[in-house]
């Protein structure tokens, strides 16, 4: 089993060009720490010492370059850029001695630790892949003889297989359900229809609650109905079909019909289209 | 025996070990470095293994390692190729593992199809599931659960260590567009009875 | 060595020699007659084969006979062309191996980036990693660890024998250490237009 599932090492890790020009291609990177690590290697910046500042600048320049080329940048990279900008400011400003804020030194040390840790793991991964491998450099018995009950079962199933089959089964089972569940949420379209129908018969101020569908369960579905109805109300108010009133912050919201004729026409048009 | 001979002997030994079939003397001669004394090597190797648990045996002009005949009986060697479990059986096993104690009807409900005769039997005979008493509901149906042999086979310490839905998803084993279920956190309360993760509150 | 021991040794040898798969010490103990000194037998057998073309190798708590790696060039055995593992998967495998038991979130912290779907599952499918129970921390996240098959594949006897393990431990590089995530909370995000805390705050 093991030999048919073996993998080659990835010995051709994408490396930046050796002439110093940094090729902007995020495809080759495994996230911002990896970019920093590559930059550090490229510029021979010692990550164990606190020469983090030039590295931070390199990274910020790199990010600026990517953004200038209008390439899509994952949020991770921007988060790191923000963090490094902050680090830069902590490194450049004198230590204010505030217990609240970390010193630049502490931050740089944390970054150095993380860079070193990733570097070590990247190396370890490559070392692993470079080892003698089963099925490639050494081999199992070619003609195994089977013992009864050497393994606890005569059936061959792996945990992976068990879980994969279960996952597939659940997905199959969930396939339709997910769709139906999504519809449980009360949509703005529904709310619009309902509001337009109900408004005709309510010329006076009525609480928003009065317009919610009946028999709603509590929780997210109920909240979605409330939100959708409010959104529908705002939409209709924008169209001049109703008025909305709220007298105090977080106070109850009231709706009132504005133009009976217009609303009726709207309902009619709606039903004509349907 | 010279160092060269010893090296040749190791090569011969490795070749015979790794081969799926009997190897003919012609093939062996081709595989060994030129100048190797095949006859002498085979004789030496055969005598090395004569008293061991494995012997080098000759069949016509071909050679192979075989378990020593007198041990075969004690070791209960079978030529059986391990069987594959049917997909229905694997699915059923997974459902029993995740939903236990679970009745036959519930398994059918989860799978959406009726369980063919013998599916539970196969799992029972394999020693992976066992009856776990009867449900106190009309008809008093039998509950099924997994055994210690099940845990052994799959190398799991405890049934609760089976990955939850979120873990399966994270591992790419269960993909699904998360819809409303992802937002249920605050208002569920009505967990479905068959929810494998009901109980451990680590889902959301 | 007594005659009984010698007999046990032959049985053990036959068992291991006959199997292409790893055999766990538990299975071996079950198969040997009661009172057999498994540890002693395994050590004896391993040294018997140390200089041969076939070696007895240990992988965690399991054992198997494998051809000696240094012979590969002359064996002319057809080798599998290994599937190429993605760079993310190689890094993840190393992190699981050196940091185990490790959670998905911890892997992501070391790599500084979220793990894409399928990275863990390709390693799980290869039989190299497996769930190792849940962490007793809030959320009870799933732990991952390497398998004996992983050790076997890479010819490593024990997790502690992973190359450089001692040094990395001593250097504190396998601890969680103080990562930059520790200094995220104070970030007021004034420097960049983008709110650094948008999205998951625990990325780093």
Quick take:
The complex is a heterotrimer, with one copy of chain A (274 residues) and two copies of chain B (204 residues). With 274 residues, chain A is mainly alpha-helical.
Topology of this protein?
The complex is a heterotrimer, with one copy of chain A (274 residues) and two copies of chain B (204 residues).
Chain A: E1 7-8, H1 32-42, H2 52-68, H3 75-92, H4 104-129, E2 146-147, E3 155-156, H5 159-184, H6 188-199, E4 206-207, H7 220-238, E5 242-246, E6 253-257, H8 260-273
Antiparallel strand pairs in A: 4-6, 5-6
Chain B: H1 3-18, E1 23-24, H2 25-31, H3 38-49, E2 54-59, E3 62-67, H4 69-75, E4 77-78, E5 83-84, H5 87-99, E6 102-103, H6 104-111, H7 119-125, E7 129-134, E8 142-146, H8 148-154, H9 165-170
Antiparallel strand pairs in B: 1-3, 2-3, 6-8, 7-8
Helix pairs in contact in B: 1-3, 5-7
């Amino acid at each position: 089993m093991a030999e048919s599932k073996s993998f080659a090492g990835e010995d051709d890790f994408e490396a930046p060009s050796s002439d110093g020009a940094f090729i902007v291609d995020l495809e080759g990177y495994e996230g911002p720490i990896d970019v920093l690590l590559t930059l550090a290697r490229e510029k021979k910046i010692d990550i164990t010492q606190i020469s983090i500042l030039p590295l931070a600048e390199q990274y910020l320049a790199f990010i600026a370059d990517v953004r200038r080329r209008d390439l899509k940048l994952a949020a991770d990279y921007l988060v790191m850029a923000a963090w490094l900008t902050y680090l830069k400011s902590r490194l450049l400003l004198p230590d204010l001695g505030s217990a609240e804020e970390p010193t630049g030194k502490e931050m740089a040390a944390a970054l150095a630790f993380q860079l070193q840790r990733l570097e070590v793991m990247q190396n370890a991964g490559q070392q692993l892949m470079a080892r003698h491998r089963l099925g490639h450099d050494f081999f199992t018995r070619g003609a195994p003889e089977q013992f009864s009950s050497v393994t606890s079962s005569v059936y061959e199933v792996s945990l992976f297989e068990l879980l994969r089959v279960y996952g597939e089964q659940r997905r199959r089972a969930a396939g339709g359900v997910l769709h139906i569940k999504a519809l449980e949420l009360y949509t703005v379209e529904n709310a619009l229809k309902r509001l337009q129908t109900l408004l005709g018969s309510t010329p006076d101020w009525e609480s928003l609650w009065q317009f919610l569908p009946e028999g709603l369960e509590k929780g997210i579905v109920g909240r979605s109905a409330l939100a959708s109805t409010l959104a529908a109300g705002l939409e209709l108010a924008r169209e001049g079909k109703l008025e909305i009133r709220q007298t105090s912050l977080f106070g109850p919201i009231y709706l009132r019909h504005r133009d009976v004729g217009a609303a009726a026409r709207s309902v009619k048009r709606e039903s004509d289209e349907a | 025996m010279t160092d060269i001979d010893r090296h040749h002997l190791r090569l011969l030994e490795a070749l015979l070990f790794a081969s799926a079939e009997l190897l003919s003397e012609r093939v062996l001669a081709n595989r060994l470095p030129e100048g190797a004394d095949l006859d002498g090597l085979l004789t030496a190797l055969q005598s090395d293994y004569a008293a061991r648990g494995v012997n080098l045996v000759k069949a016509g002009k071909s050679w192979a390692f075989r378990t020593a005949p007198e041990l075969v009986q004690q070791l209960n060697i079978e030529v059986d190729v391990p069987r594959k479990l049917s997909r229905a059986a694997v699915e059923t096993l997974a459902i029993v593992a995740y939903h236990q104690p679970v009745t036959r009807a519930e398994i059918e409900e989860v799978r959406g199809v009726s369980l063919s005769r013998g599916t539970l039997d196969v799992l029972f005979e394999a020693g992976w599931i066992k009856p776990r008493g009867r449900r106190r509901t009309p008809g008093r149906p039998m509950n099924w659960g997994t055994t210690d042999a099940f845990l052994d086979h799959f190398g799991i310490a405890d049934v609760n260590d089976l990955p939850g839905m979120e873990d399966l998803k994270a591992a790419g084993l269960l993909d699904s567009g998360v819809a409303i279920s992802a937002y249920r956190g605050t208002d569920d309360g009505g967990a479905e009875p068959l929810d494998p993760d009901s109980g451990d509150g680590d889902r959301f």
